[in-house]
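Two proteins were folded this term; both appear here.
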Amino acid sequence: MQGSTVAQGVPQDGGFGSFTIVDVETTGLRASDHRILSVAALTLESDGRVAREFHTLLDPGCDPGPVHVHGLTAEILRGSPRFEHVREQLSELLTGRVMVAHNAGFDYGFLMNEFDRSGGVLPVDHRLCTLALARRVAPPTPDCKLGTLASYYGVPQRKAHDALDDTRVLAGVFRALVADAARLGVAPPLLRCPPKENSRGSWRRPGTRSGPKSPCEFSYPGALGADGRLVQGMKVAFTGETETEREVLIAMAEAAGLDVTGGVSGRTSLLVTNTPHGPTGKARRAAELGTPIVSEQRFVAMLGEVRPGRRKDDSAASGRTASSKATGPLAGRRILVLGGAHREAADARARVVELGGSAAVNMSARVTDVLALPGAGADRRHAKAIELGLPVHGPELLSGGPSTTVRQVAIAEAVVDPIDLARGQVIDLPIAERGVQWQLRASWAQSTTWEVDLIAFLVDGDERVSTDEDFVFYNQPRTSGAGLAVEGPSEQSIEFDLDELPVTCRRIVFAAALEGAGVTFGDVGAVEVEVAPGGDAAAVARTTLDAATEEETLLLAEIYLRGDNWRLRAIGQGYATGLAALARGYGVEVDE
């Protein structure tokens, strides 16, 4: 399949017949180090029905990793084929078709590495991430997890983390998302492969753990008390050799309700090691911070008397306080601004936020109103808004007076709107309720004229990177505690783990840089930024930034440490210089 064959949410060239749904279960998160245990692939007919179905377990030639996640033991896998034995069957199902997966970069990275190891080439020219598509469509769900979307669209799910059932479920969810995208005039995020960043696998640095981190269900209760009793939600780290396999210890800790982390920070409740005075960085860091250190034997004994913790579900869903709830005449309304010159549209979006509303960059199911500025009629979304029955307003909407024309959007009670930040506004990240693993994602208007790159600098107290490795961009997509993912032609994200950041890091600066001769952010228009506790989680905070006109780089936001709290600030500051000059400003050595 050549070029973009999906237009306005409707598959072309034979309907759904160009798509193959894929899912893999793996021994860990890093495609470069870990292996596929199970793979399923479904091809679709033009009407969306399943045409062919393929599924197999695989012998990875190594330990199966986190059995408590995928349920695939060495005994279950014994006698299964190796990947090279099924490669040709997968090639036949993928060749000339768009690969569809939920968090497609993960599945693509593992398949690419398995094909490479076995002497083949993954025959995928384009992929489509249903997680990114769900964010574009924005159905009224509390998150974009596959199970949540399946429940919303009425697709039965029998066994989560089972490759075959997950592909069957995703086929139904994909059909429903495409239908909603077509209704809204939303173009699915079809991404040419391989993406420019050529990223393989997870962003997590090697050696942190060999399996996916299960999210802890309990809020962080603080440091270990004087009684030496563990409490569910406490953060536990491991270092050095252990008598029991590390994965078994991790599974035991997580089963007890503890939060296993890959590093030692001021929030780590306990370090488990049999060599407390050993040479590892974690042991040295624990000694510096005064973090309690216990032996493996003592830790296993402590697991027998873990006290109950507070479930995160019992906490405020988004961590916002009552005072952070939006107020004003436009409160509760998500408004898409169309038309107008760049400055006029930017000012209008800023005014929407001032009046308590949320400024949308793209059409979605949660848009309630449209603000039409001069020239809006030339935008195809204007006609789509009228077709959908959305209220279309003129500049009088921004007067601040009472407005009674409101389109009611049915939103589930569990859905909590993110906090909308204006430029310069700050909030505390709800670490206690939502954990330390976060994602900043950015999206913008899709175009073939320009290419936008999301980047991040991990800087110290002097506003400089400690090493060039503390710079995340397309040629260096991961470093300690942070990593870049490309999810579509106009959406990228950076995941970061606050417990995994370099010890010197006091601030993460997120920016966007342009590629394309003579192109500026004045051409791109607004950039929407969301911060969420994970890729499939709902956003906690959101900001819409389009202050730039002639600039080629744009500072989007920063996560910084204030005392013991991590805070988020929306920035929106542009520079007329390119990425190289911005990187030098933070101390990165750039080759001429």
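Next, the second protein.
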Amino acid sequence: MSIYAPTQASAPATTYRLDPLSPAEIESAVAAVRADARVGDRVRFWGATLDESHARRAPDDSGHARKVGLVVMDYGAAKAWEVDVLLKDVPVCVDWRSIDSRRPGITSEEARAAAAACRSDPAFKAALAKRGIHDVSLVMVDAESMGGFETERYKDRRVTWGTVWHRVNEGDNGYARPVQGVVPIIDMETMEILEVEDHGVVPMSDEHGNFESGAWGPDRSGLAPLEVVQPEGTSFDVDGWKVSWQGWEFRVGFTHREGLVLYDLTFFGRSILKRAACNEMYVPYLDSNATQYRKNFFDWGEYGAGPLTNSLALGCDCLGVIHYFDVAVLGGDGSAREIPQAICMHEEDNSILWKHMDLRRDVGEVRRARKLIISNFQTVANYDYGFYWSLHQDGKIELEVKLTGIMSASGIEDGESAPYGRVVSKNVQTPNHQHYFGIRLDAAVDGALNRLVEEHAETESDPELDPYGNAVRTVRVPLTREVDAAQKTNPSTGRHWRVESADAKNRYGEPTAYRLTLPNTTSSFCKPDSVMARRAPFIHNHLWATPYEPKEQFIGGQYPNHAEPGEDGVHVWQQQNRSIDGAELVLWPVLGTFHFPKPEQWPVMPVDHIGFVFEPDGFFDRNPALDIPKPQKSQGSPATPASGCCSSE
């Protein structure tokens, strides 16, 4: 059973300074830009973003005008600007800042126009004809960022390259039929096909990769219904974008660049995080073949999570009693586009919270865990990514990233091996690659000012203190400046990090704190002088930390598209070596996974998982979940009679 149980009909009118932009606000900001004499008829946009720093300076419920930042491109003049619009009764542009016209991210509208331009180009059609493709309407072209591989002759142009796929009919999965060796180079301002690289004809797969029901035989039988029933409704309350649940209070947000954002998380009135979001995603492919070697993307910085967000379906993406949030994004053409049911929120049973059985008295106590999940999904061409933020009854916060969709493939000759990947279908290989998720956590553990401490285990080095060889110390190393906070995980020593309050202490005299653990991640395999290694230096550590600075927003830099590799980002900011001892602390954890492809992930991937944990560590004086009520005894079923083992009754 899945139930849509909203406490609001749709996204409410703005009532709080950090609420997501409404369609009306986006349209008003765009109208103010269009009315300015600086822009011509061929104006395009990449994102409308609330100025959060400006919003936070405004008093609550003051009616203070919000400020929106837009990235505006004038194709006719090859110019681009950042424009700040103050949303007064009559919106007004208060600042125009020129930027390199190549640098804004690629919009969905641009990508579709680029694909259409390729299908009309004689050289592109001739390359396809050599491969027996004559109906170009069935050809898919994904416009990909150049990613540090810009050539000197196109250095002043806003260019992309295209990956090419073929469908045998409209319903076919084109990603299963890569057109190897054909690479169009596209000017995204003029939509001119500058050249078509042809690296030689490789046979295309004649195997389909469809995955709708029945595509590979009859559906599996015997799956009985599984219903999630909450007869008394949910345990959370929603007021606009504000949510309360089991001692938690927070606000749901949404931005063009990051998608889902959580603001002002408190637990039983005590602050924990000011802001939490997946801030960037970087995907380097690790194959040197002609069609793959350029593939490395800042999916958020070059495309944007917001416009790629899915509408979620009740009973499919979300199971249970669901509350949805609708959002709005700015399209490349300047129109406000609403995404209904973009964010899903629901409760889930999470097995045992705590338990003990007293064998001497033959009585026991057990409590079941429940968690609140706030999630959304983005589709980036072939891949799909889900971001699941979970809040727990013991004060723990988790992020789980779910990776699914279709692996990016390339064509191979009959009988050819895949030294840098895996053969997954006839004439199809999928390359080794990595996914890096740069997270942004604005800490506020028991107050605005925090400290960062690395913690690990060490064996006792003094034999007089360790006569039995089993003494192990917990070692804490304060990280007081930015350069100290460029850290790597080390599971062999149990390395994790404490975010400590600069002011509050627990009853044991320790600073109250939260612990950050990165249980599974990876390191970069690209050579130090490679484009990939130089383009995203943030991936070379698993944690960074900086003092809050409003202009330092994105771990991989403000505009990675056509950027000089490594010119901006957290690795640059931390060279200032500012103090982070008792600061408004921003943590930048990096989650990385190495994807070794396998046939079982073709033609669509079962979900892979990666994530992190942020949990109390001396924040409380004892188990904070001792007040959870006893579970109700199950009524059982004919096959499973009711049990009375869940309490001492």
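The helical segments are 23-34, 52-57, 108-120, 122-129, 299-302, 531-535, 570-573. The chain has three domains: 3-99, 108-198, 237-616. These notes refer to the second protein only.
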